[in-house]
Design brief:
alpha/beta, Aspartate Aminotransferase, domain 1, Aspartate Aminotransferase, domain 2, 2 domains, 4-stranded mixed β-sheet, binds pyridoxal-5'-phosphate
């Protein structure tokens, strides 16, 4: 049978994310997807609780996005962006400028989230270079962050759970403040920012930018923190002449209940990174936006060129799909959908708090997660199959089982996901 062959060929030859091809991971084959359901090679349909890593916010195989993609293929799938432009890029840039904070006026189209962050770092370093401040080359971030897998981004990932051990000798050395641990503004105390303030006040002359995931830290620990922390960081960046880069790649386009997570704090970054759900999970595209001030600053030494330009920059097909996804989102009642998902997580996940395996349950917008006392990594040879047998798709990692569903999910389907979390907990306690 062909599909069985596929799996054994895959096992033999193909790398999956963070995996070995010598001791291959447990893999399932998906042959199609529609709405919130993935169809496996044996015909089973499972409910997707991951949105393909925060991406497929409208679900799969959406007729309007499909139509936009098909129309664009018939016009042109790609054309180089050096010396040329095209309607999909212009249209998408217009939309992005329109929906983000007013000072963000310039758009760089990157080919993945990691590259969007690389470009943000380059913007910041080039900005200070052009101001004659060549010594401002380092970055300040917080622990438990995740910003991508390329070298620049790895250097600002969490030094313990990131990939620093392998690449320690080649990674640039950055500054790390403790990860923000104040969840509600009402509980704010100055201690929460003390170490961050100490680092920035002591080292600002060598710091180009602060890099942060606003409000929700994704793969570095799935931690949430309060808007006041962001406001304090913004104020310190202004005080010490340091740029603020916000990495919204996971949080962008509504996931936290606001269109962008920085809106919770009512601040504006100097540089903003977008990705993941930008194309609703259809294809890879990301964007780095910046203010007029940053763009002018980069141009200040006369040359003015930002030194990045990927081959597939602003791919028309991806831009067209992204535009359609944004239009679809803004026309939908996404706030209501995300709020309903949040309430259902509160009702159906919070009770697991009392389970003896569970350390914490956290909910924000369309993000629900159960943090365990122990990691699940040692169960990953059977756990994925067990999860699929519950009729759902979840991908626990480290000590976290989390649900980030498409916004269009029905309450019945969401209940099947939250129930599966309970079944997983029961199975793990055996
Ligand atoms: C996923 C992610 C990235 C990296 O994006 P890729 O498209 O995987 O390169 C960067 N930052 C954050 C916050 C992310 O969630």
């Amino acid at each position: 049978m062909k599909n069985t062959d596929d799996l054994s060929f895959d096992r033999e030859h193909i790398w999956h994310p963070y995996s070995s091809v010598v001791h291959p991971p447990c893999i399932h084959e998906v042959v199609s997807a529609d709405g919130v359901r993935l169809t496996l090679n044996d015909g089973r349909k499972i409910i997707d609780g991951m949105s393909s890593w925060w991406s497929a916010i409208h679900g799969y195989n959406h007729p309007r996005i499909n139509q936009a993609a098909k129309a664009q293929i018939d016009q042109m799938s790609h054309v180089m962006f050096g010396g040329l432009t095209h309607p999909p890029a212009v249209d998408l840039a217009r939309k992005l400028i329109d929906i983000t904070a007013e000072p963000l006026q310039k758009v760089f189209f990157a080919d993945s989230g990691s590259i969007a962050v690389e470009v943000a770092i380059k913007m910041a370093i080039q900005y200070w270079f052009a101001q004659g401040k060549q010594e401002k080359q380092r970055l300040l971030t917080v622990r438990n962050g995740y910003h991508g897998d390329t070298f620049g981004t790895m250097s600002v990932c969490d030094p313990d759970n990131g990939m620093h051990t392998f690449f320690n000798k080649v990674l640039p050395k950055q500054f790390f403040a403790p990860s923000p641990n104040c969840i509600n503004d009402e509980d704010w105390s100055d201690d929460n920012i003390a170490e961050f303030r100490e680092i920035i006040s002591e080292h600002h002359h060598e710091i180009a930018a602060v890099v942060l995931e606003p409000i929700v830290q994704n793969a570095g620990g799935m931690r949430f923190y309060c808007p006041e922390y962001l406001r304090q960081v913004r104020a310190l960046c202004d005080q010490y002449d340091v740029l603020l880069i916000l990495d919204e790649i996971a949080t962008n386009f509504g996931r936290t209940g606001r269109l962008f997570a920085y809106e919770h704090a009512d601040i504006c970054p100097d540089i903003l990174c977008l990705g993941k759900s930008l194309t609703a999970g259809y294809m890879t595209l990301a964007a780095t936006m910046c203010t007029q001030k940053v763009a002018n600053g980069i141009a200040a030494d006369g040359s003015g060129a930002l030194m990045h330009g990927p081959t597939f920059m602003a791919n028309p097909l991806a831009c067209r799909v992204a535009s359609e996804s944004i239009a679809l989102l803004l026309e939908s009642d996404w706030q209501q959908n995300v709020k309903a998902i949040e309430q259902q997580f509160i009702d159906e996940l919070m009770p697991y708090q009392s389970d003896k395996l569970v350390k914490d349950v956290r909910v924000m917008g369309a993000i629900g997660l159960v943090e365990l006392h122990e990691p699940v990594d040692q169960y990953m040879d059977w756990l994925p199959t067990f999860i699929v047998e519950q009729g759902v798709w979840l991908r626990p990692f480290r000590n976290l089982i989390y649900i980030t569903p498409p916004f269009i999910i029905s309450s019945e389907d969401l209940t099947q996901l939250t129930t599966a979390v309970g079944t997983i907990l029961k199975r793990l306690s055996l």
